[in-house]
Amino acid sequence: MQNDPSLGPADDFLGGQPPTPRQPRRASARFMLSHPSHIFALGFGSGLSPLMPGTVGTLFAWASFVVLNRYLTVIEWGALIAAGFLGGIALCGFSARRLGIEDPSAIVWDEIVAFWLVLLMVTPATLTGQLWAFVTFRFFDMVKPPPIGYFDRRLKGGFGIMFDDLIAAFFTLLVIALWRMSV
After folding, report:
1. CA 101 to CA 23: how far, in whole Å?
2. Cα-Cα-Cα-Cα dihedral sign, residues 65, 78, 121, 107
3. Most exposed residue of 14, 78, 99, 167, measured as fewest CB within 10 angstroms of its CB?
4. Residue 18 exposure: Cα atoms within 13 Å on the Cβ side
């Protein structure tokens, strides 16, 4: 990985000097590979999709859940999701600052962690059940009905990037629970 001087000082990742204002950058493979944090924040490249990167990131979350679920227990999933959320605050905030955009669409780690939580809570579910969880989560993440939109507008930085998707996951799980109770 190369050190790209146009990205600003390295210590802004750890909360050092505030980054100097810069022109917004477009996320690219080169940007993603310029720092390990960007690899996670951009969902291992899924956020680089030119069309609907949040949806592609959520699809990546679904595929990775199916693969990892063979190896992880519920407790290990819980630890991974908690670490993914807490680490995501720093990773996504850092990458957003480097891109010069408050909540870049290319950052999809928030969708990945939130959808892992949804899938963990609905498992075991049929493929159809997982598909409905996907559709419901994408609805809440894209439309951002209240209070999701409120948090999306008010909370900034890495915490804001991660938190609105956590709320979208909560509402997805609420809808699924209500549907299951009615059947």
Report:
1. 9
2. negative
3. 14
4. 4
Residue 20 lies in a domain: no
Domain that holds residue 59: 27-41+49-182
Residue 3 lies in a domain: no
| Model pLDDT for residues 75-129, shown as the tens digit of each residue | 999 999 999 999 999 999 999 999 999 999 999 999 999 999 999 999 888 999 9
In Å, how far from its chain's centre is CA 77? 16
The pair of structure tokens assigned to 117 is 């939580």
Instruction: Find where tokens 């990167």 sit.
Output: 53
Whole-angstrom distance, CA of residue 183 vs CA of residue 174: 14
Token digits for 45?
């490249």
Say how far apart CA 91 and CA 39 lie, in whole Å: 9
Q: What is the pTM of this model?
A: 0.86
DSSP 21: P
Cβ atoms within 10 Å, residue 29: 10
**Phi, psi for residue 125 in degrees, rounded to 5:** -135, 150
- Number of structural domains the chain divides into: 1
Return d(Cα 169, Cα 136) in angstroms, integer.
9
